[in-house]
User: Fold Ribbon-helix-helix protein, CopG family from Microbispora siamensis.
Amino acid sequence: MGSEQRHTTIRVSVEIRDLIAQLSEQEGKSMTALVEDAVREHRKKLRWQRVAEQMERTRKEDPEGWAEYVAERDLWLGPPSNRIAPEWEGLIDAPEDLPDEPKERDEG
Assistant:
């Protein structure tokens, strides 16, 4: 019984089942793998939303602490024009736009 995965059944509408099947075929993945990936991605999205909310709360409720954070961030990342992930620019002004995860740097 060791590492054998257990499975269960969930109820979804026929429309969602058909959509999962269509996406599964397009992606070349099983329906189960597609659903598992979607749940993992949703969890990441929720985690980043909480981070953005906490950052916004800190910015509003602790301006001095926020200024220290921004100064340290800029010390590590350099001025905004030199940052590795320019698509994150504006994050401070719009934390709800936080991406799911940073893009990997091209090392080559």
